[in-house]
Design brief:
The complex is a heterodimer of chains A (566) and B (319).
Chain A lengths: L1 H21 L6 H9 L17 H4 E2 L3 E2 L1 H7 L1 H8 L3 H6 L40 H4 L1 E3 L6 E3 L24 H4 L12 H4 L13 H5 L69 H4 L34 E2 L2 E5 L7 H6 L13 H4 L1 E2 L2 E2 L58 H4 L12 H4 L1 H7 L15 H5 L2 H4 L13 H4 L2 H26 L5 H17 L4 H15 L5
Antiparallel strand pairs in A: 1-2, 3-4, 5-6, 7-8
Helix pairs in contact in A: 20-21, 20-22
Chain B lengths: L1 H20 L17 H4 L3 H8 L10 H6 L9 H4 L22 H5 E2 L2 E4 L13 E2 L6 H4 L4 H10 L6 H5 L2 E5 L12 E5 L8 H7 E10 L2 E9 L15 E9 L5 E9 L12 E7 L9 E9 L6 E10 L1
Parallel strand pairs in B: 2-3
Antiparallel strand pairs in B: 1-2, 4-5, 6-7, 7-10, 8-9, 8-11, 11-12
The chains are: A mainly alpha (566), B alpha+beta (319).
């Protein structure tokens, strides 16, 4: 039975051998045995241990693979374990717990899940995100080529980082830097240096004082600033040595301008009024602080064009409180106003300054582009006139039109027209849109002539033939004073017509007089009576403009008064 | 016997002579309040009477415009000419009776109790006495009333027709056209008594109307009116309303009037066109039409109330 089992085991051991032979890999007997006894091919680093003769270098007959045999070769690890140094020195585990000698791998170590805190160099800040190879590539001595190993990396910064500081500050990186960033945002300048950062120094970038970190010039960083107690170590003296070298006697660290310690009152020119808000360089151009002229305003102020050099001595009108804060003398001084652009006359003399010298509610005494009226006044004529306002108006009042010559207009005023108020004809302020035809004002007469006047007295239109032929102005010449002076009747008609006109006049006046008398008896109601009276008065003046219509109107009135319906 | 024969012959002659001097209707020459009505003239002169009755002369007094303008005859200065006793009076007198007949038969043919006319007595006896007077054939006769028109006529200085030749055209007929005296068949060159204004078409032929176009944008040009043959002003007349009107129409391409202008010619405004005068009237329409097609000029005789107008002449000129 035992023989049978031995034979079976031999056959089963030979089975892989047979397959190996078939692949022509094994060439010697030794190889055949090795192949039968070895669990797998040795990994490449242990390749020199292959062969049956070498099994004992790692394996013992009684205890298997012993740690001491591993460490017998791997002296550097043994050394670290002895010295309790490095990862292996502090781990306290057997080699085989992590490593194997045969394939597939010598280690069962996965970098991505490795807990670096178990090493002596916990990864913090920016280190945490690095690739392993970034640090664990070690230069081989002599050759300079790099090789990968997790061992032997120095714990100091200089192990990986280059010292860019010329001063050799590398030994104490952590005293300034943190693993989060090279930047020194939280650098306690006050504690760690003799130059506490105050005022605007707090926000000045490091390199402003400690040199530029330009590419290739990193080693120029200078952390020790020579002569740091003097401002001039960093700042230029814009005063060119003319003033007290102790800057802080005038300036603070809160800005060259802000928080000025300089008391201008100590100077001969006291800053009063608006001068207090002026920037230094507006007067002290080119940083000239000594020898400036200041006795006359014009030493700094250019003369305003508004004055056109007509005024001498600013102080007689202006005060330091502002150009517009005029002296009591100046306020309301017509004489001074006249010496400038514009003589204030008439109604202008009484107008408040701001009425003219104001734009968008802000006083600006020099912002009047010219003396044109419409800079201040609206044009009520809506641009109808091309002539300047002064062609008609004077400054005493817009209503004073004594300059306006109506005779120069297209419609000349004569006779009764001269007595009329302007608005009798000019109903809008656009004076150009005014009636020019007689009938547009004297509508009743023209309508009467054309037989379209009234409607209570007549049953048909009766046109005076002359209304079509004769124009008003043919008879009513300029200066007529309400009477016909242009052409008399006999200029056109012969003497017989004179009798006709006279007869007609007598007839009309008699009839009107009679009807007026009848009207006064008061048979009609009051409104009607007024209407009839007005009609009679109209006919009295105008009957001759349309005889036949006048006849009909009069007979109509007569019928009304005698109670007969028209 | 011979004596008897002679005396019969003498008697016949005497009768004839007596008959020649006999006036059958002496009352027809009655003047003043005794003036017979014009109807009496109608008894024999039927046609002439009818012509007169339809003429402006018969309506001189009764026409509505005259009645209106004189305020129902209250303005007496106008009346004598419109119902004159005799046109031969230097200063016209209002007839004593029958004003409504206007310028009636007697106004012209009865002078100081004598009936007058252009034709001689032609019957061997007097139905009414008649005196032949040449004045009736002359323009100055019409000028007795129409003095201003006659003055224009005189001044025109042309070889021309008399008033009668145009306004009383010649008609050949008997004087009497009614019983009992109608047997007298002698025909004479009589004149029509309608006193009408000449036929408008005929007036048109005597007045030259022309449209001369100058430009299309704006449409304008000249109207030329020439009084070629009428020997008095157009219009003429001293009193009342006389107007010639020129209406201009701007026509579009459908012939529709799109704009109108009007020019008036009257005696009073001294715009009447004198004999032989060539009146040039420039005109321009404000340019309203994209494509004005034609200008039409119409010359009319306007009437008092502008309700009726009579076209004298019209012209159309295409652009």
């Amino acid at each position: 039975m035992r023989k049978f089992l031995l034979l079976f085991s031999l056959i089963s051991l030979c089975w892989p051998l047979q397959s190996a032979l078939a692949e022509d890999e094994i060439v010697s007997v030794e190889d055949v045995f090795t192949h039968i006894l070895s669990p797998a091919t040795l990994n490449a680093s242990h390749a020199m241990l292959s062969g049956v003769k070498n099994c004992g270098k790692c394996h013992s007959m009684t205890t298997g693979v012993s740690q001491s045999k591993c460490l017998g070769c791997h002296r550097e690890i043994q050394q670290r374990i002895v010295l309790k140094k490095g990862y292996h020195g502090t781990l306290g585990k057997e080699c085989l717990q992590c490593h194997t000698g045969h394939k597939p791998n010598i280690i069962t170590f996965k970098p991505e899940s490795f807990n670096h805190r178990l090493s002596q160099f916990p990864l913090t800040g920016k280190h945490a995100g690095l690739q392993c190879q970034k640090c664990h590539l070690q230069p081989i001595k002599d050759t300079g080529r790099k090789r990968f190993t997790y061992l032997g990396l120095a714990l100091q910064c200089a192990g990986c980082h280059k010292d860019i500081h010329a001063s050799g500050a590398m030994a104490k990186c952590q005293s300034c830097h943190q693993t989060t960033s090279w930047r020194l945002d939280n650098f306690a300048h006050a504690e760690k240096t003799p130059f506490p950062l105050r005022g605007l120094h707090k926000i000045v970038p490091c390199q402003k004082c400690h040199g530029e970190m330009a590419a290739g010039q990193k080693d120029k960083l200078q952390f020790k600033v020579a002569n740091y107690k003097s401002c001039l170590a960093c700042h230029k003296d814009t005063h060119k040595g003319k003033l007290d070298p102790d800057c802080l006697s005038c300036h603070t660290m809160n800005g060259w301008r802000g928080g000025n310690l300089f008391q201008h009152d100590k100077a001969r020119f006291k800053l009063v009024g608006k001068h207090q808000g002026v920037k230094c360089r507006q007067c002290h151009a080119d940083n000239k602080f000594k020898g400036l002229k200041f006795s006359d305003c014009s030493d700094c102020h250019q003369k305003k064009t508004a004055h056109k050099d007509r005024i001498k001595g600013c102080k007689s009108c202006h005060q330091p409180e502002g150009w517009l804060a005029l002296t009591a003398n100046m306020q309301g001084s017509l004489e001074l106003h006249g010496q400038m652009h514009y003589q204030l006359k008439g109604a202008h003399a009484k107008v408040e300054c701001r009425k003219c010298h104001s734009r968008n509610g802000v006083n600006n005494y020099f912002n009047l582009p010219s003396a044109r009226c419409n800079d201040c006044h609206k044009d009520p004529h809506t641009g109808a006139f091309k002539k300047p306002c002064s062609a008609c108006h004077i400054e005493t009042s817009f209503k004073d039109l004594r300059l306006f010559d109506h005779q120069a207009a297209s419609f000349k005023l004569d006779g009764n027209h001269q007595k009329l108020e302007c608005k009798a004809c000019h109903t809008s302020k656009n004076y150009t849109q005014t009636p020019g035809q007689c009938g547009e004002c004297h509508e009743d007469v023209t309508k009467f002539s054309r037989g379209i006047w009234g409607d209570s007295w007549r049953n048909q239109r009766i046109i005076s033939p002359k209304a079509r032929i004769v124009n008003c102005v043919d008879c009513h010449k300029p200066g007529h004073q309400g009477k016909v002076t242009g052409k008399t009747c006999l200029d056109c008609h012969d003497a017989v017509y004179q009798q006709f006109f006279e007869a007609r006049r007598v007839l009309a006046t008699e009839a009107i007089a009679r009807l007026k008398q009848e009207l006064s008896r008061g048979d009609l109601d009051t409104p009607r009576q007024e209407e009839v009276r007005a009609t009679l008065q109209f006919l009295e003046k105008n009957y001759f403009h349309n005889y036949r219509l006048a006849d009909q109107a009069l007979s109509g009135i007569e019928r009304q008064l005698s109670g007969v319906k028209p | 016997m011979k004596m008897v024969r002679n005396s019969i012959g003498l008697g016949f002659i005497l009768v004839l002579v007596g008959a020649c001097n006999y006036t059958m209707h002496p009352e027809l020459a009655g003047s003043g309040v005794a003036m017979p009505p014009s109807d009496r003239c109608q008894e024999c002169h039927t046609v002439i009477f009818e012509e007169w009755r339809n003429s402006p002369h018969s309506k001189a007094y009764t026409n509505e415009p005259f009645k209106g303008i004189t305020a129902n005859y209250k303005v007496t200065a106008c009346l004598p000419c419109h119902a004159p006793e005799s046109v031969f009076d230097g200063e016209k007198k209002l007839r004593k009776t029958r004003h409504e007949e206007g310028v009636n038969c007697q106004s012209c043919h009865l002078v100081e109790g004598v009936l007058q006319g252009p034709v001689e007595q032609h019957l061997p006896f007097n139905i009414h006495p008649i005196k032949q007077v040449d004045t009736y054939r002359k323009s100055e006769f019409c000028g007795k009333c129409h003095s201003r028109t006659f003055a224009e006529y005189e001044q025109s200085g042309r070889t021309k027709k008399t008033c009668q030749e145009c306004h009383m055209p010649k008609v050949r007929r008997t004087i009497i056209d009614n019983k009992p005296w109608v047997w007298s068949k002698d025909e004479y060159d009589f004149r029509r008594h309608s006193f009408n204004v000449m036929d408008l078409a005929e007036i048109g032929s005597k007045i030259e109307l022309a449209v001369v176009l100058a430009g299309q944008h704006p449409p304008g040009g000249q109207i030329i009116i020439e009084n070629r043959e009428i020997p008095h002003n157009i219009p003429t007349g001293t009193y009342g309303y006389h107007e010639i009107r020129l209406n201009l129409y701007l026509l579009d391409d459908l012939g529709e009037p799109k704009a109108q202008q009007s020019f008036s010619f009257t005696q009073e405004m001294k715009t009447a066109i004198k004999p032989g005068e060539k009146r040039v009237i420039p005109f321009v329409f404000s340019d309203q039409l994209a494509l004005p097609f034609a200008v039409k000029a119409v010359l009319i005789r306007a009437d008092m109330d502008q309700q009726e107008s009579h076209v004298i002449s019209q012209r159309l000129e295409v652009f």
